[in-house]
Amino acid sequence: MAEEIPKPEQLIQIDHRPPNMDWMETPLNIRKGMYCYAANPKSVEYLGLPNARPWNPVEDDWALPENWQDIIHQGFKERLERFRSFKVFMDICVRCGACADKCHYFIGTGDPKNMPVVRAELLRSVYRNDFTRVGKILGKLNGARPMGLDVLKEWWYYLFQCSECRRCSVFCPYGIDTAEITIMGRELLNLIGLNIDWIATPVANCYRTGNHLGIQPHAFKDMLDFFVDDIEEITGVRMQPQFNKKGADILFITPSGDVFADPGTYTCAGYMVLFHYLQEKYGLDITWSTYASEGGNFGFFTSHETMKRLNSKMYAEAKRLGVKWILGGECGHMWRVINQYMDTMNGPADFLEEPVNPITGTKFENAKSTKMVHITEFTADLIKHGKLDLDPSRNDHLKVTFHDSCNPARGMGLFDEPRYVIKNVCNHFYDMPANTIREQTFCCGSGSGLNAGEDMELRLTGGLPRANAVNYVHEKHGVNMLSTICAIDRAALPALMEYWVPDVDVCGVHELVANALNLEGQNDRTTDLRGEDIPGLASDSEEETDEG
Amino acid sequence: MNARYMLSLIAVIVLFLIAWAGTAIGLQVVFGIIIPYLALLTFFVGFVYKIVDWSRSAVPFRIPTTGGQQKSLPWIKHSQLDCPATKWQVVVRMALEILTFRSLFRNTRMRLKEGPRISYQLEIFLWVGALAFHYAFLTVLVRHLRFFTEPVPFLVALVENVDSFFKIEFLYPNFYFGLPGVFLSGVVLLVAVTYLFARRLFIRQVRYISLAADFFPLFLIFGIALTGILMRYVLKVDVTAVKELTMGLVTFQPAIPAGVGTVFYAHLFFVSVLLAYFPFSKLMHLGGVFLSPTRNLTTDTRARRHVNPWNYPVPVHTYQEYEDEFREKMIEAGLPVDKMPEPVPAEEPAEEEKPAEE
User: Fold this and answer.
1) Which of A281, A285, B12, B138 could form an S-S bond across to A248 if both were Cys, CB 3.0 to 4.6 Å?
2) Complex ipTM, two decimals?
3) CA A155 to each of CA A79, A199, A456: distance values in angstroms, whole numbers, following the listed order
């Protein structure tokens, strides 16, 4: 795929001026590099989702069920009744345009239909035609149009060019959330079997094996055991991760991406180092699960129902194992699901205890109903109470910035916990410019199931605003490490950095924590978790380290 | 030529002509009494219907957009305004949203420069224009209560006084303007509407997304403001007669007094059309903003459970089904299992696919 990707100099030639015509008249062009492959029918079938079949987005005939228009209409109607958000957002947009240049896909591509308002109008135009009288009478003049194959294709193309990041909803005077509209739109598309494979297959995997990558239980254990060897080589200490342990204090769930691929694996190793430290020093008993071995939830990108089906494993496993509460790893959309959906869908979790950190005595009041705590909340609390023996100088070779992941940012408000942790384990931290972080953060360009290989151009253009802000701190402060608390980020940002800002690497926050954490019986720790020599600490040199 | 705004403009001109022709042929009763009553009725019924209709839809999940630090550990500063954890904090967030357009205030403008460097600068004009427009409109509305109350409430008189605080007068022998005292709100309204129209016309991105339904209310409101200003400063309409008519409407003793000019009926007709059009249009953002689930809900979603009224059981893949499929591999890897296999390991039954019945 690499040879087809335009050079950065070409990709940066972006024209943000829309053509001089009605948006409805702008023809659709399903372009290679911008879309993901159609769902594998086997995956769709495995989940029992409707209209599984092979089809190809670039072919004229999408092999749609005969009554597809009716299915969409009925599905639309049902969702208008079920979701006030959907109904209100269909009615009240005034098209002020404040959202237009807030979308990373619009900034990166200049495609006018990537303006959030137009993305929403794709659905609104059909809504006006099907569900409002004025719309039906005035027709196109009033922005209404009947559903047709062209409209459907346009829906599909642009609803899978939205990463549900909610940045536009921060700026909208009515809080219209394009993510919500995309979620509904994708649900409707799923009714007629129009998912993408990068979502459908992980969902099927997750349903069967407990994680998106389809790692079976024995393999899951093998992979963590492999990290045990690595960590021992690096630190001189042997970890003993526990699996499916009944009666443990805490169940730990994190995205399987971190078990699978660099640099997420270092974050995973980071968790293991932390848990080992807590077990040795404080006797805290944390277990992993092979059944609930996925924090992420690509069901969220399919439909509310699919999200609920996959999410159910978290509580079910916590109940089966009889733990006190659940600890969640670094993941983006996983935390939107946990924070805003899980308790409602699969709660109440009355079989769990209100989470208390047994080491510090801190009661996590903010998680007392859902009973699931974010690991940066947990670690920040440990650090605040001086419970971790940290040597931040082992991260002195890193100049770190932090990428707020969309969902923990705008679907949770988790901003200062990870920053507090980073600042305590690193001596060099530099935030990116204010308009690109916190609630105004930019997506990695690959969120909501769009981190496939075949849509690389979409990912690189959508990630441009993020990369550009990283480049800013790279040039200004020499930042060489982009830290993040999202597994999709860890999977997607390395490619983005390599393309736009080649000198910057990507890591999870708990990789940095583990680098700094002193372990009982450790060796001289001259390498970091990646097994790379730490400048200044390399075996026989006695160079002074940077005084922070 | 842009059909979307041309047609809207033509529609408003036609509306004017209808009112003009109607009064010319003596349909004062229709334009002065029947249409205003019908319009008001449509407005109220339509508005209430729409709100009730929205309210009937469920709020299955609490999905606020969190625009600031969540309430978590006690020593981390919680952003009460942008991540409200209590009802009262939500009230303040909503109040600021509705009264000061706080989200719009954040607006930035993206620029792609050489380098490449992308910058995001504060873009205040839309916020200023929108705020000016809405508050001018509100002031005009409050001022007009003078025509529907007797005696005029203190508050209305006060608003009038403030509104005409700046004396704007041109008094020359052949040209005088400013008597009676100029109300700032009318002027601001006209300017703001013109600005909002101009940006739809000249900012290419905004033009691309603008529908006829975006131009029409602007022209209509422009027409309302223009006819109002004409009556007050140029044509000097007989205010006493106008008030006789409006008070008649309010007291349900409608009558058509003599001496009320055509422009007044055009003004009233425009207002009637706006009222009747309101509930069926984007203008319903007035009501909708209160119901927006990304703004009007608390963010304490992990501390307090939200109930979904239509939550239904779904098929799940249970642990038992999972273990049944992988039991042998789990045992081999040393993972604990709930059920040890039978001593004589008969052929495993084919993988069960049955979704848990609900």
Assistant:
1) A285
2) 0.93
3) 17, 17, 20
